[in-house]
Design goal:
This protein is an alpha+beta fold. The protein has one helix at residues 2-88; strands at residues 99-105, 111-118, 124-126, 131-136, 139-142, 144-145, 153-155, 160-166, 177-185, 193-201, 212-213. The protein folds into 2 domains: 1-88; 96-213, Immunoglobulin-like, CATH 2.60.40. Helix content is 40%, strand content 27%.
Length: 220
């Protein structure tokens, strides 16, 4: 009986030690879990901080992008503004409103020189054939283009260029047909100017007189 009691006590003691060990392990696990939880929170806090930093960087990046876009837009406007200045002068085409028109006799019979003076404050360019329409009481004759090749002509403020109109002089002895006005449209323009002229051509049987015009910048 004594041996049995001792054995029973030993079993109880071993069971107690095992329970204590299990509880200690649980506490250790719980402690480890507790340590893990703060570590997790710390990591989450750091992660949140990183996101805030990233968010701030994104915000800064957005602002930078917005600034770049703003500069780009301003640059575009400036470019547009620069393009406008070029069109108004520089290498842009001369508008009709920037030109003064006059006429003078040509070197040869049957020619009329039309002068185009730049009245603007900037240089501009003319290239191509002008529109030239002769008008009389009987109707209108549009000049046909000659075979002369067009060239680009830059006209500075106060300077002028010219083109030549060719028509058949009236040497028939008859009254012929007299044109009293010339409507001129500069190259690449839609606005015209009407000039007083006195051009007498022989009366043709049909098709009108053979009137031709040279490109701007080629007349002398």
């Amino acid at each position: 009986m004594r041996v049995h009691k001792l054995s029973l006590l030993a079993v109880v003691a071993v069971a107690g030690l095992s329970l204590t060990a299990c509880q200690g392990s649980g506490k250790s696990s719980s402690g480890s879990g507790g340590s893990s939880t703060p570590s997790s929170q710390s990591s989450a806090s750091q992660g949140s901080g990183s996101q805030a930093s990233d968010g701030s960087a994104a915000s800064d990046g957005s602002a930078a992008s917005s600034g770049t876009s703003g500069k780009g837009t301003a640059g575009g406007q400036s470019g547009t503004s620069g393009g406008g200045r070029a069109a108004g002068g520089g290498s842009g085409a001369c508008p009709t409103s920037q030109l003064a028109f006059s006429t003078s006799g040509g070197m040869a019979e049957g020619t009329l020189v039309v002068n185009l003076k730049n009245t603007g404050s900037t240089a501009c360019t003319l290239k191509g054939f002008p529109g030239a329409d002769l008008k009389s009481k009987d109707g209108t004759v549009s000049a046909k283009r000659s075979t002369v090749a067009p060239v680009a002509v830059s006209v500075k403020p106060g300077e002028e260029t010219r083109f030549t109109l060719h028509y058949p002089p009236n040497n028939s002895g008859g009254s012929g047909e007299t044109f009293t006005s010339l409507v001129v449209t500069p190259p690449n323009e839609t606005h015209s100017r009407t000039l007083p002229v006195s051009i007498n051509v022989p009366v043709s049987d049909g098709g009108g007189p053979a009137v031709t015009v040279d490109p701007v910048g080629t007349g002398k």
